[in-house]
């Protein structure tokens, strides 16, 4: 009897092992990868086979695959799928697994129908290329309600995307979230999200006037996250080259709708209306060690933060970033109001973001490029700490020195370096000016370095 049970268990384990090792090769389902044949049906058949399995890898050998429509991958709870390409992150390069479309559509839509949260997906070494063209007055989608992301993960518990390329989509590159947005229960957020070492190139869109449907400023991002917690977005290049696209995108990275405790680290971001945008979230984010340029609105921490169950504010930490307006030109259409534009812009004024910290960043105004509001930093929130940041100018060529604006009382102001800039404390000028010069001490002893400083 015991021997029979042992044999049965071994057979069951073997069955599970075989099931876990299922590999679905798109070429075995008819994909050609010759750049001419429409491989959408072959990809969809492979995706359906993988979805039906408990765990599977969709293998995409090197090739140039044309698809005329979106490939839908259903990923129910408990299931695991891998999308595995040839490992190159440069679209069209020799040996890459490139999937491209000539239509305005997402290439992959990975979804689990609500309310159940989907399983786990890993994408590695794939190249996705859209049909976007440089901006002209005759651009087919510009400033309309028509857009698409290269790859969408909707209502999926675990998402990992690495070593991949997403390029030339009008609308956006990578989207992880839930279609219900703020209506989604907090218990239904994606808790394991890693987007690491990808290249998102020339994915943009701009919708700066309200449509008949009431939409405005609702797409155009490199990487967009909502309804995620503890996400890691690291070491990616999110680059919209405006000399090629002739237009800004909306935002390089967005953290919105119920996001919490996310890490944005080591990314290079350029060419967006605002390169990082945080709004409608629970805070706890760390924005660290990024290189941000090609816009005069580098990091926007907006109001409408959500109330946490523990009562703490939705504070964020902005640390060790290099931010400059270099590469931004005056003739580019923007969407966010000029009055709020700065290399770091914090807007709440209601205590939603108090206890936030801005530490060790280098902000540089390059006079050869535009800075529409002429502002390096705007802080419109109570009790934010500013420590060991450096504010600099290069090649002013007679232009006015840029502004640093604080119009709410700070928590700390310590170790700041002001080089040829103006500081304006608005209604708090008497207190602020003494603080900055070390004549009045904040909660930490100030040790601010001043070079050619003007106080307004």
Structure report:
By secondary structure, the chain is mainly beta. It has one domain (22-455): Pectate Lyase C-like (3 Solenoid). The protein contains four helices and 40 strands. The strands form three sheets. Strands 2-4-7-10-13-16-19-22-25-28-31-34-37-39 form a 14-stranded parallel beta sheet, with no helix packed on it. The longest helix is centred in the first third of the chain and has 19 residues, at 2-20. The relative contact order is 0.07.
Instruction: Kindly report the spatial arrangement of strands forming the biggest sheet.
Output: 2-4-7-10-13-16-19-22-25-28-31-34-37-39
Domain count: the total is 1
- The CATH superfamily bears the name Single-stranded right-handed beta-helix, Pectin lyase-like
User: At the first level of CATH, what is the class?
Assistant: Mainly Beta
- Gross morphology is globular
Q: How many extended strands? A: 40
Strand content: 35-45%
What would you report as the Rg, rounded to the nearest angstrom?
A: 24 Å
Q: Give me the secondary-structure category.
A: mainly beta
Amino- and carboxy-terminal Cα gap: 90 Å
User: Could you say what the CATH topology is called?
Assistant: Pectate Lyase C-like
Oligomer: single chain
Q: What's the tally of helices?
A: 4
Main sheet makeup: 14 strands, parallel
- Helix percentage: under 10%
User: Low-confidence segments, ≥5 residues, pLDDT <50?
Assistant: 5-19, 439-446
- What's the pLDDT, averaged over the residues? 89
What's the CATH architecture?
3 Solenoid
